[in-house]
Write a structure and sequence with these properties.
With 576 residues, the protein is mostly helical. It has a two-stranded antiparallel ribbon with strand order 1-2. A two-stranded antiparallel ribbon has the order 3-4. The chain has a two-stranded antiparallel ribbon with strand order 5-6. It is globular and about 75 Å long. The chain starts with 24 loop residues before the first helix and ends in a 21-residue tail after the last helix. 48% of the residues are buried.
Amino acid sequence: RCIHDTATFTGEKNASPNRNSVRGYEAIDAIKSNVEAACPATVSSADILALAAPFHVLTKCRCFMGGPKWKVRLGRQDATSARQSGANGNVPSPFSGLSDLISSFAAKGLSARDVTALSGADTIGQAQCGTFRSHIYDDANVNSTFAALRKRNCPPKGGDSNLAQLDLETPNVFDDGCYRDLVAKKGLPDSDHELFNGGSQDSLVRRYSVNSEALARDFAATLVKVGAISPLTGSRGEIRSNCRQSEDLAISLFFVWVAMASLMQTLVALSLLSMFVCDVGGQLSSTFYAGTCPSLQQIVRSTMAQAVNKEPRMAASILRLFFHDCFVNGCDASILLDDTAAFTGEKNAFPNRNSARGYEVIDAIKSNVEAACRATVSCADILALAARDGVALLGGPTWAVQLGRRDARTASQNDANSNLLGPSSTLSTLISSFAAKGLGARDMTALSGAHTIGQAQCGNFRSHIYNDANVNSSFAALRKRNCPSSGGDGNLAPLDLETPNRFDNGYYRDLVAKKGLLHSDQELFNGGSQDSLVRQYSVNNAAFSRDFAAAMVKMGAISPLTGSRGEIRLNCRKVN
C-alpha cells in the first residue's frame, strides 16, 4: 500500500477503501530511512510496517491500548507491484452483509469466528460519517437514542469525513466494549451490527461482550493467522530501499485485512500493528516438554494401552472427548471440569450428558504424569496425546502432537450446547460448523472417520433407521433388533458395522453401502459435495489416514491457551 502509482501500474493508495482515509506514510518513510542507515537493504517495508506503531505506543513492554499480546512473525519481502483493482475487490465495505463478510474471510482461509474476533478491532478508533450514515438513518437494527447522538455530527447530506468513535464507551482502550455496543444495538457501521442481528454470530458476540479474556485470546490467534496470509518470502519480492518505490512495494494481503478490520482508519490500523511485537508467551511445539518432562509421551502411551486393552471402545471415547473439548472455546481441557458454584460446565451439556466418558482414564494419566513431572503438563495436552495414542493403538495413523496448551479456568454448558453438533445435523450444518472453527469440508469428512471406532446410543440413531430413506433396509432391520421404536434409548450399536474396534476406512465403506448409523454420518454420502471424497476414502485407507492426521493437527490448534493464559491444573476435574 505504501508504493506510489507508476507508469506500469495503478496502486492501492487511491483505491476506494484507502482514499482519503489511510495515512501515516511519512512516518513509515522516516523509520525506513533510519533502518536503512543502520542495516542497508536488509529489512523489508512490509516488516517495518508491522513493527512501526509499537515504538509510539509501547511502555515498559506493555501494549498501551490494553490489548492482547502475541509475537509477530518476520521475514516478509516487499511486493514489486500493486493493483488498485485488487484493493477494491478484496476489502469488504462498511455496508457488507454477514454472508459477504464470512465469504470474504473464507476466501483468505479465515473462519466466521475469525470475522467476529477480528471485528473487535473496532473497539478503538473512529469512522467517517460517509461510512455509517445509511446505518443510523435507514436501518432498523439501531438504538434510536444512539442514532440521534450520531446524527448530530453526521447530517443526511454533507460532512462525509466527520468522525465518530467506533466504540461508544471506551474508544481508546482495547477491550470488549464494541461487543457490548453491538448487543445494545449501538454498532456504528452497518457491517459491525451485522454480527449481532439474529444471525450465526450472535452467541459469539454475546460471549465476547462479557468475556474480554475470550476475545483477547481469539483476537490474538486470528491476527497470527492473518499475518500468515500469502507472505512473500525467500527469493520472491524484494527488499525496497524506498517504501514508495519498487526496485524491480509493500502490500501484502495481510495489510489489506488490517485495513478492513480497522475500517480504514489510521488510529485503528496503527493500534493493530502495535500489537504485533507484543509477546503471547509461547507457541505450540511437538518438543515443548522435551526438557521439562521427557517421559511424558511414554507415560501417556502406556496408560492408554492399559485402558484400550481392557476396553477397545475407550480409544473412541477419549477421541470424542478431545473433539468436544476443542469445539467449545478451543482445546483447553474445559470439558474435564466438574461443575462448581461459579459455573455450570460442559459435562452435562446435552451432547455430553450420559455419553461423554473416559474421564477416569485422563485422571489416571494425569496422576502418572504428575508423579514424574509435577505441575508441568497441562490436562489439555494430556487429552491431545491420549486421543492420538488411542487411534494408533487401534491400528490408525499417528502424528506429531503440537504441545504447550494450558488449561482453562472455567467452562460453559451453554457454549457446549451451542457449539457441538447433533446426530441429526445436515451436511450444510456440518460444513458451516466446521468452517466456524477454521476447518474445511475436507477436514470435516476426514474427521468424521473417527466413527470408524466406537458405538452410538439408540436414541441418537433411531430416527435414521426408522424414518430416513437413504438407509439400507437390511441394515435398518438389523439395528432395529436392539433399538425399538420407543424405549431403549441407551442401547448401543457399533458405528462401523464391519470393524468396530479397528481404526480403518470401514466407516466410509458403510456410507457408500448406505449403512451409516447416524443421520449426520450418511449425510456425507447422500448426493452432496462430499460423495466423491467418501468414495475415495472407502477404497484408499492411506489417503484417509493422511487426511485424518492432518485434520487432527489443525483441530488441535483451535484457540489454545498459551504463555501466561490459563493454568496447569493439578487435578483435571477442578481449577487450582
